[in-house]
Design goal:
By secondary structure, this protein is an alpha/beta fold. The protein is 34% helix and 15% strand. Strands 11-10-9-8-17-15 form a six-stranded parallel beta sheet. It has a four-stranded parallel beta sheet with strand order 2-1-3-4. Strands 12-14-13 form a three-stranded mixed beta sheet. Helix 11 links the parallel strand 10 and strand 11.
Length: 432
């Protein structure tokens, strides 16, 4: 156990230290404000305050973990060996930066509470982030800092047996539209045919009727392929099906259609299944409640978690709704068009509500690569190179790599050529 001496034990202090020490490094942590208890402790210990007590491991604290509410923080980014950091700690500190305050800033998503320009879908764009603008978006800096801290502890306490973590993968399969042509209904079929015809997309017209007549396979029907991949792995894939009502943004199959229900049940026999919330459910807790209940009625068990439509997260409202509905996990924390670590980490963390200054039970599982982000790379070689660099970053800190693919990503549609290769590279990375 690591004992931390600090002048004040706040919710932010407890939250951050437990993330760094326990969830990343596997070390239990306790806190004290009593010097006598600190001195008497004969195992791992450190002080986190303004001045060291003696010759102990000391990290000079920034004020951030002792504040409440939001303030306009002036952040200066510095190079630190092979990474970057902020919140200088001074010469007496065992680390040159207060990694705990910096960690809290990133995983609480402090910057997303501050005024910023949103994109066309109302999302926080990567271009507004500290990480993107200071070139550390593609590094899990929180985990890198944690291991630098571990090295300091190891030097001070060489006899302590530190737990070991291993690299892992959690593949996400997002299903906004289960089928391209099947089960969509007469009106959508008619409308789609007319649209394709007048746009001279005769190949699509031919394909549509080939599918409907049973002569061709629906291009989005890639479930057999995915399940076959799942059968060969001892870690679970996560599926998120959209079961919301048809709208401008959501165009999935009617959740009452038996063949769609059967598909979800079939997938749930092999993989974990959660709910992909509809666009309008993002800000409507009653609608989200309906969609959660629909999915649980289909799979006949509690959902594994949620993914927000269009990867949109409005803090803190989006996550508060999930907490209220007792949804255990969320898989939306990432960027659509950029590879990397939106929260600066490849380790799941709990949602901290900055308005209420409270840690919640909602586990945030950040994703690091969404299939659309690879489309900016022209060749398969470029895609593979970007992917390998990202996975190496996660492997170096024994983190969890979370990629997001869609069911149609594994189709024969030209746009998604070679994406099966990328997916298999990710699955095989666990064995390397």
């Amino acid at each position: 156990m690591l004992l931390v001496y600090t002048h004040k034990i706040t919710p932010r202090v407890k939250y951050t230290f437990k993330q760094v020490c326990t969830r990343i490094l596997g070390i239990p942590v306790e806190f004290t404000t009593t010097i006598e208890d600190f001195i008497a402790h004969d195992s791992l210990k450190m002080s986190y305050t303004k001045q060291p007590l003696s010759s102990e491991v000391f990290i000079r604290s920034n004020d951030l973990l002792f504040e409440q509410g939001l303030s306009d923080i002036d952040i200066n980014i510095y190079d630190w060996e092979d990474t970057k950091c902020f919140f200088l700690a001074g010469e007496k500190s065992a680390l040159p930066y207060d990694i705990f305050a910096a960690t809290f800033y990133l995983i609480s998503r402090y910057e997303e509470y501050l005024p910023h320009v949103k994109d066309n879908y109302g999302r926080f764009p990567a271009e507004e982030s500290l990480a993107y603008n200071n070139q550390f978006l593609t590094q899990p800096v929180v985990d890198i800092w944690a291991y630098k801290f571990k090295a300091v502890l190891q030097e001070q306490f060489p006899d302590f047996d530190f737990p070991k973590k291993t690299y892992s993968v959690t593949p996400i399969i997002d299903v906004p539209t289960a089928y391209k042509y099947k089960l969509v209904g007469v009106m959508r079929t008619f409308g789609g045919t007319i649209k394709d015809f007048f746009a001279f997309r005769f190949k699509d017209v031919y394909e549509r009727f080939g599918v409907l007549l049973g002569a061709r396979k629906d291009p989005y029907d890639t479930y057999k392929y995915i399940i076959n991949r799942q059968k060969k792995r001892n870690f679970k894939f996560m599926f998120f099906f959209l079961v919301g009502d048809f709208s401008t943004y959501d165009k999935n199959i009617n959740s009452q259609k038996q063949k769609f229900v059967s598909l979800i049940k079939h997938v749930a026999d092999y993989c974990q299944v959660g709910v992909k919330s509809s666009f309008f459910a993002l800000n409507d807790i009653e609608l989200l409640k309906v969609e959660k209940s629909r999915m649980e009625a289909i799979i006949n068990t509690n959902i594994a978690g949620s993914r927000q439509s269009f990867s949109k997260v409005n803090l803190p409202e989006s996550y508060r709704n999930l907490v209220e509905l007792e949804i255990p996990e969320d898989y939306t924390m990432g960027y659509v068009n950029h590879l990397g670590f939106r929260a600066g980490t490849c380790t799941p963390f709990l949602f901290y509500d900055l308005d209420y200054e409270v840690q919640t039970p909602l586990k945030i599982v950040p994703y690091h690569a969404l299939d659309f982000a690879f489309l900016k790379y022209n060749s398969l070689l470029d895609k593979q190179e970007a992917l390998q660099k990202l996975m190496q970053q996660v492997k170096a800190v024994n983190g969890t790599f979370v990629p997001v693919f869609h069911n149609y990503t594994f189709s024969n549609i030209p746009r998604w050529q070679h994406f099966k290769t990328l997916f298999n590279s990710i699955l095989n990375s666990v064995d390397e």
